[in-house]
Amino acid sequence: MTSKVANTEVAQPYAQALLSIAKSKNLTEDFGTDARTLLNLLSENQQLRNFIDNPFIAAENKKSLITQILGEASPYLRNFLLLLVDKRRIFFLEEILQQYLALLRQLNQTVLAEVTSAVALTEDQQQAVKEKVLAITKARQVELATKVDSSLIGGVIIKVGSQVIDSSIRGQLRRLSLRLSNS
């Protein structure tokens, strides 16, 4: 198994190349949408991930599948993925797409806020979180990645970069417990 750092080091130049292609064709947002779709597809379909990651499956079979999945929707992205198959780098697809999205957020002055809540957030609650993050970070836009964790009991945990805002009931109980044990 390769390490996360090694994967990131291999993925970074490919992600930068993909961003360069997207910029030259004025398709950065379209590639971003396609990257999110592919990442969701890979996370939801373990068979697809296994197929792409398997080094014993012929490159032509992988190319055929990629062509079927993408169709004619995005020829530049499709050709990029076919090149990854040729260069035996398709194994790094997930990391490359994640790096691309990180570069795209940087380009657009957008921050990623990872929000964990006890229950799914409503549109109004998501908007309130976005406004709070905008006020804290002074970014132009906020992209939310939401997750539900019922063990929080209530409230939310917001992570932006290395900054964590824990306003969950579980976090408050943990802090109270620490204060009581130190007394």
UniProtKB/TrEMBL annotation:
InterPro entries: ATP_synth_OSCP/delta_N_sf, ATPase_OSCP/d_CS, ATPase_OSCP/dsu. The gene is atpH. This is ATP synthase subunit delta. Belongs to the ATPase delta chain family. It comes from Anabaena subtropica FACHB-260. F(1)F(0) ATP synthase produces ATP from ADP in the presence of a proton or sodium gradient. F-type ATPases consist of two structural domains, F(1) containing the extramembraneous catalytic core and F(0) containing the membrane proton channel, linked together by a central stalk and a peripheral stalk. During catalysis, ATP synthesis in the catalytic domain of F(1) is coupled via a rotary mechanism of the central stalk subunits to proton translocation. This protein is part of the stalk that links CF(0) to CF(1). It either transmits conformational changes from CF(0) to CF(1) or is implicated in proton conduction. SUPFAM superfamilies: N-terminal domain of the delta subunit of the F1F0-ATP synthase. HAMAP family: ATP_synth_delta_bact (MF_01416). Keywords: ATP synthesis, CF(1), Hydrogen ion transport, Ion transport, Membrane, Thylakoid, Transport.
